[in-house]
Amino acid sequence: MKANEQTNSTNGNGRSGAPAPANGEAAERAGKKTRILIVEDEPAMVAGLRDNFEYEGYEVISAADGAEGLERALEDNPDLVVLDVMMPRMSGLDVCKQLKIQRPSMPIIMLTARGQEIDKVVGLELGADDYVTKPFSIRELMARVKAVLRRVSSQMPADVYRFSDVEVNVRRNEVLRSGSRVELSAKEFALLAYFISHPAETLSRDRLLDDVWGYDNYPNTRTVDTHIVHLRQKLEPNPEEPRFILTVHGSGYKFVG
Predict the structure, then answer these.
(1) Rounded to whole angstroms, how far apart are CA atoms 135 and 70?
(2) Which residues of 172-207 are buried (b: 16+ CB within 10 A; e: fewer)?
(3) For residues 200 and 250, is the Cβ–Cβ distance under 8 A?
(4) 171 with 211: CB under 8 angstroms?
(5) How far apart are CA 240 and CA 118, in angstroms?
(6) What is the pTM of this model?
């Protein structure tokens, strides 16, 4: 189904003489619109989705390739990402993987081509919240968007994680210690978020490099150790005797916050 066909269908079914609907309700009540990021390389599809989402009361931003989509998601913190699997520069599956590492609570709906069941399975295994198969009706996509946003809204307290005097707000990409902001680099925050999402689990350096840095082989695994040192200096009461980010000798690291 083409994007303009989606838009025309929605115009006929939803707009004729009908008052503007009030969706994105929770965010509207909080004084801002729910923001949706569309990561899609077909301009007609983007235009059709933007038209329908904006009519439903959402704010829309977009990206035309996977790398730009990842960058916009990390910078703009949308409330939900609609992400096509087949994308130039960086696949939707890779974008999903990186987002779920660096922004675990950010909801993602994948768009997959008909017959690509493996994409659905892999996407869900990587943490996608739902998927829609092309061609799809705009009503189906809207229903899934609303369902995911409701589910995420009910789980919002999980966005904030506390240990000792440290508070980590995953959604805001913010860390406070005794009420004061702690400045972390993007990779330090991604590493901390990964630890938080894998509590009490021993994580090898190679796994951290693969999942946080995004590649299997890095010339020097000491880069993990360096980032661990920085996190301990910023978050541990006594960095020389860490209580939260522990070294598991011969294996890697474990977070016990």
Answers:
(1) 24
(2) ebebeeeeeebebeeebbbbbbbbebeeeeebebeb
(3) no
(4) no
(5) 46
(6) 0.56
- CA-CA-CA-CA torsion for 90, 96, 100, 101, nearest 10 degrees? -20
Residue by residue, pLDDT tens for the chain (257 residues) are: 334 334 333 333 333 333 334 344 444 434 578 999 999 999 999 999 999 999 999 999 999 999 999 999 988 889 999 999 989 999 999 999 888 888 877 899 999 876 666 666 776 777 888 888 888 889 999 998 998 888 776 554 457 888 999 999 887 788 999 989 999 988 898 899 889 888 899 999 988 887 787 654 454 678 899 999 999 999 999 999 999 999 999 999 999 98
Least Cα distance to 82 among 99, 102, 62 occurs for 62
